Amino acid sequence: MSTNAAHETAQFMPHTGLQRLIDVLCVRGYNVVAPKLSQGAVVYEPTTSAATIPFGWIEAQEPGKYRLIEDGEAGYFGYTVGPHSWKQFLFPPRAVVSTSVRTEDGWNVSPPADDGVSYAFLGVRACEIAAIEVQDRVFLQQAYVDPIYAARRERVFIVAVNCTRAASTCFCNSMRTGPRCQRGFDLALTELPDGFVLEAGSDRGREIARQLPLQMIADAQLVTAEQLRQRAVDQQTRSLPVDGLHDLMLRQLQHPRWNEVAERCLSCTNCTQVCPTCFCSSVQEVTDLDAAHVDRVRTWDSCFNFDFSYMNGGVVRNTIRSRYRQWLTHKLGTWFDQFDTCGCVGCGRCITWCPVGIDLTEEVAALRSESTP
Q1: Are 297 and 290 in contact, with CB atoms under 8 Å apart?
Q2: Three-state DSSP class for residue 305
Q3: pLDDT digits (tens, 9 = 90+) for 117-167
Q4: Does residue 331 share a domain with residue 194?
Q5: Is 292 domain-assigned?
Q6: 205 in a domain, yes or no?
Q7: How many structural domains compose the chain?
């Protein structure tokens, strides 16, 4: 965005305006969810106070490693992403999808009541917006719409934050999903040493912005914001080129590299649990003691679980090799066939939170360099 164009849309908000933003959103009936420090990591939890947002923290992320580090110059959003994703609020880890009650006239089956909660997500990164858009494809834009996801998604207000730093595990730039937020937000913030450059991306965002303590933006502030955003690009050392990815994954189904990674993989499901786009789930019937009330409950599952592929009396993927290959070829290959998009957004969570440090960018690079005709 040019300086002149930014002048037309951007304004400056001092750090003190962050609490005002939270207050306005709460008055509007939003349940504000923002970053918070918990058990040595940055997670997403409801808040009513800007004081709970971690100030002065960055993190060191490497394959299988995550450590928070105090940094007085980091501001409110100097870190990148932790183990949580916004998926948990739109696609809950546990949800009742239907209830059956036995009556004198038979069974009465009803869908769950909408909880009516309107979320405001504060601190959404560009890769996370891309992940939400991927899940929109899965739950909203196919033949069958998920009513739980649809109701929650319709009410979400998104306050995005442009990254000014990158973790060593980030590769969103190569995936064309970040680090700057281009769309999908109501408000977007770029943090400067003394406040934020604020941009509105929707009518709802502009309406909220009118109630904030905003000031006219200066050219110097816009230049600094652009330099900080560029720093997040320059710091990325990992990449995953998207071009030709689909065909590569399907061409290498019998490559010996799958055996090598299977010797390290624990099939622990960490990568799928922290992934902001994975959507595997299982359904169980939960009944009361007299079998008169039955809830059909959906819970998160993973294609890495041994019995996830159980069908017709047996398990289809009974080796770690087959399960890892299924996960990676689906996310990076056949996801294009199903949803016309890649299932990876370059957030790097699966690299950081893998106990043995398996790096999918390294695995794909090996498949690419050792490609067989």
Answers
A1: no
A2: coil
A3: 999 999 999 999 999 999 999 999 988 999 999 999 999 999 999 999 999
A4: no
A5: no
A6: yes
A7: 2
